Amino acid sequence: MSSDYRLLPVSWLNNIWQPDSYFKNAKQVTFQEMTIPNHYIWLHHDKTILYMVKLTLVLSCAMNFKRYPHDTQKCAMKIESISYTTDDLIFVWDPKVPLVVDHIELPQLDLVKNTTGDCTQQYATG
């Protein structure tokens, strides 16, 4: 291998464990359809696997417009596991990967900042 990783065939998805992740506040999740596969599996030299998929999300976020047009709104993207607890699975955003693509265009809105955080919740089931 000439690079730090090797691109594996998409068929490997049938042979590796995948987390049962979902977006808690998503109204709609769409796999981006392309002429080439939008799933990627990288096998690194240290035997870790990176699985990537391109998704389009429509999120539901509570807004308060009492001070509009001088208001500030927050909208979180919440990722959870359906069946695993934090003893088994923890989602961590890679700090080297941007949260927002450069030059994002949101007409009439300004993206002031973006951050990551822990939104772990305790449920009665564990």
Automatic annotation (TrEMBL):
Q: Which UniProt keywords apply?
A: Membrane, Receptor
InterPro entries tied to this protein: Neur_chan_lig-bd, Neur_chan_lig-bd_sf, Neur_channel, Neurotransmitter_ion_chnl_CS
Q: How does it sit in the membrane?
A: Multi-pass membrane protein
Its protein name is Glycine receptor subunit alphaZ1
Keyword Cytoplasm: yes or no?
no
Taken from the UniProt entry, a GO cellular component term is: membrane
Per UniProt, subcellular location reads as: Membrane
Which Gene3D superfamilies did the record assign?
Neurotransmitter-gated ion-channel ligand-binding domain
Q: Name one GO molecular function term.
A: extracellular ligand-gated monoatomic ion channel activity
Q: Where is the Neurotransmitter-gated ion-channel ligand-binding domain?
A: 14-110
Q: PROSITE patterns per the record?
A: NEUROTR_ION_CHANNEL (PS00236)
The beginning of the lineage is:
Eukaryota, Metazoa, Ecdysozoa, Arthropoda, Crustacea
